[in-house]
Amino acid sequence: MNWLDVLSGAVEQALGPQAMIYCLAAIGLNIHFGYTGLLNFGQAAFMMVGGYAVGALVQTWEQNLWLSILVGLLAAVLLALVLGVPTLRLRADYLAIATIAAAEAVRQVLGAASLNDQFGGQDGRFGFADDMKSLNPIEPGGVHFGPIDFRSYDFFIMIVGWSLALLLCGVIFLMMRSPWGRVLKGIREDEDAVRSLGKNVYFYKMQSLILGGVIGAAAGIMSGLATDNVAPSDFATDTTFFVYTVLLIGGAARVFGPVAGAVIFWFFLNGLDLFFDKATHDNLIPDWIMTSDQASLMRLIVLGLVLMLLMIYRPQGIFGDRRELAIDGR
Amino acid sequence: MAAETQSVTAPGQTKENAILVADNVVRTFGGLRAVDVEHFEIERGKITALIGPNGAGKTTFFNLLTGFDKPDTGAWTFNGESLSGVAPYRVARKGMVRTFQLTKVLSRLTVIENMRLGATGQRGEKLLSSVFAPLWRDQERSNTKRAEDLLERFKLDAKRDDFAGSLSGGQRKLLEMARALMVDPELIMLDEPMAGVNPALKQSLLGHVKSLRDEGRTVLFVEHDMDMVRDISDWVVVMAQGKIVAEGPPDDVMADPAVVDAYLGAHHDTELSFEDEAKIVAEAEAEIEAEIAETEEQS
Ligand SMILES: Nc1ncnc2c1ncn2[C@@H]1O[C@H](COP(=O)(O)OP(=O)(O)OP(=O)(O)O)[C@@H](O)[C@H]1O
Ligand SMILES: [Mg+2]
């Protein structure tokens, strides 16, 4: 492996299916957290509900894939209602607590051994994406841009996923520029003020939770389609925190924040991994500092450090508005 | 007649044409009866001032009437419609809009966006029509026009495109008042609208408040500045320790011993000068004497 491989490996990840999935999830979370100020710490649950609806309906109950995708999106609506109805009237922290608990509950239930026949326990569901694979028009050899390679089906998924992400960005741009988006942003700033002007805050928060949740489910579905597998470990709590990281890197309440954030996040996450791997193998970093086995942990350490620096020196994210920063202190 | 013997500043008087009528509104915080109002009416098309020492329960009463807080007991109607238990946003939609003592501007929205948010019946506030700008663009334009006129009136036109979070304390008060007017309320309830506004602007704002009345709106406002109260209000209601202790025309109320008590008894925290105090006491004494003479005459 040479240094170019490190770079191309990082780029492949930055544009690959993983980045696209986290981008979609962050677009949904941006509606919650960025625009409405809803503290949803259970975006992974929305992703899981979507992914599992598709996986289980197709593999266990032998339903049509496309119908299952629709059901997956509707399942997210249901989850949003279950989470939102009791908590959205209360203070913001209650939603945070409810979502973080719900995410864990959903994961425990869907991964439970006693539901092995339906959801496949810790192995989850697989082999349900055949209909999607059959649509793949990319030649089987995959695509190559210089040193950058993508497998055929991966590239197909990327095209579909990134197109969906850009489409959603466009729609969200239109929505957030409209009076509807203004109400959401008003709620983020001070919901009592918005109430005093005659807006049904609860209703708007519900719409926001549903919309962002459905987009989260779409991310989960894409994740299932990309790997032809859904498993509980794909939707653990750290998934939600990675999604938050993606959102904050790009800048909350920025239309393209999730896109930029996902690309940057995955570029560095994989780039750092490859870098430290190569550096330890080549003995650029001597063994007494770090062995190649330990190198794989470095990426998370460095990323955490970078995130801290970002939050200190650029809390509005890379594309955030500097003017907004001056206000936050008050 | 009973009404004759009742003092002109007795609390809980009925009004000829009341826009708001409240009965037995009680709100306790632990052992404290923060609001304990037996009967309260607001005359339509008039400027009513609600005064009282700090902690009298004025803000709490505002919160109750507008649905932001729930009373222990009590009922009230607005334009004859019961408002007890009605959600704050519905109260606002019915035409009763309040501002907050601690201003609530939407910091990371621009001043003009703050204003536009106030407009009611916006087609673009529906989820599905939000994406299709042509459905709401005309309405948005006319709302913007109205917002700009109001901003000019409140001397905020230069701040149009600044974030509301960058405004000074006084400017925030102005923005909040202007924004409330965007709702086009029938009754506007202002909680200390002039606190922190400079004297020169205050004068012109007083003019605006009066013009609200001339437009046919009803104004209820809380204020500690007695000169302002005397200057613009048609009617003054005095609260102390949760209760309404007196109400009447400004001059009569300020001469009422109950009011003097409320302010000078337990609480020495208003801005009355020595001359004012002496005058009020003298007036109060004169009034008491007059009353005694009056009752003697009648009997
Ligand atoms: N949320 C609350 N919890 C407990 N006590 C409260 C609460 N809100 C108000 N109070 C108490 O109720 C009383 C009335 O408060 P309120 O804010 O209504 O007074 P106010 O007349 O508006 O005073 P000011 O002129 O200082 O604004 C005070 O004694 C206050 O301490
Ligand atoms: Mg108050």
UniProtKB/TrEMBL annotation, chain A:
<dbReference type="Pfam" id="PF02653">
    <property type="entry name" value="BPD_transp_2"/>
</dbReference>
<feature type="transmembrane region" description="Helical">
    <location>
        <begin position="296"/>
        <end position="313"/>
    </location>
</feature>
<feature type="transmembrane region" description="Helical">
    <location>
        <begin position="155"/>
        <end position="176"/>
    </location>
</feature>
<keyword id="KW-1003">Cell membrane</keyword>
<feature type="transmembrane region" description="Helical">
    <location>
        <begin position="242"/>
        <end position="269"/>
    </location>
</feature>
<dbReference type="InterPro" id="IPR001851">
    <property type="entry name" value="ABC_transp_permease"/>
</dbReference>
<keyword id="KW-1133">Transmembrane helix</keyword>
<keyword id="KW-0812">Transmembrane</keyword>
<feature type="transmembrane region" description="Helical">
    <location>
        <begin position="38"/>
        <end position="59"/>
    </location>
</feature>
<protein>
    <submittedName>
        <fullName>Branched-chain amino acid ABC transporter permease</fullName>
    </submittedName>
</protein>
<feature type="transmembrane region" description="Helical">
    <location>
        <begin position="65"/>
        <end position="85"/>
    </location>
</feature>
<feature type="transmembrane region" description="Helical">
    <location>
        <begin position="14"/>
        <end position="31"/>
    </location>
</feature>
<dbReference type="GO" id="GO:0005886">
    <property type="term" value="C:plasma membrane"/>
</dbReference>
<dbReference type="InterPro" id="IPR043428">
    <property type="entry name" value="LivM-like"/>
</dbReference>
<dbReference type="GO" id="GO:0015658">
    <property type="term" value="F:branched-chain amino acid transmembrane transporter activity"/>
</dbReference>
<keyword id="KW-0472">Membrane</keyword>
<feature type="transmembrane region" description="Helical">
    <location>
        <begin position="209"/>
        <end position="230"/>
    </location>
</feature>
UniProtKB/TrEMBL annotation, chain B:
<feature type="domain" description="ABC transporter">
    <location>
        <begin position="20"/>
        <end position="266"/>
    </location>
</feature>
<dbReference type="InterPro" id="IPR051120">
    <property type="entry name" value="ABC_AA/LPS_Transport"/>
</dbReference>
<dbReference type="GO" id="GO:0016887">
    <property type="term" value="F:ATP hydrolysis activity"/>
</dbReference>
<dbReference type="InterPro" id="IPR003439">
    <property type="entry name" value="ABC_transporter-like_ATP-bd"/>
</dbReference>
<dbReference type="InterPro" id="IPR032823">
    <property type="entry name" value="BCA_ABC_TP_C"/>
</dbReference>
<dbReference type="Pfam" id="PF00005">
    <property type="entry name" value="ABC_tran"/>
</dbReference>
<keyword id="KW-0547">Nucleotide-binding</keyword>
<dbReference type="Pfam" id="PF12399">
    <property type="entry name" value="BCA_ABC_TP_C"/>
</dbReference>
<keyword id="KW-0067">ATP-binding</keyword>
<dbReference type="InterPro" id="IPR003593">
    <property type="entry name" value="AAA+_ATPase"/>
</dbReference>
<protein>
    <submittedName>
        <fullName>ABC transporter ATP-binding protein</fullName>
    </submittedName>
</protein>
<dbReference type="InterPro" id="IPR017871">
    <property type="entry name" value="ABC_transporter-like_CS"/>
</dbReference>
<dbReference type="GO" id="GO:0005524">
    <property type="term" value="F:ATP binding"/>
</dbReference>
<dbReference type="GO" id="GO:0005886">
    <property type="term" value="C:plasma membrane"/>
</dbReference>
<dbReference type="InterPro" id="IPR027417">
    <property type="entry name" value="P-loop_NTPase"/>
</dbReference>
<keyword id="KW-0813">Transport</keyword>
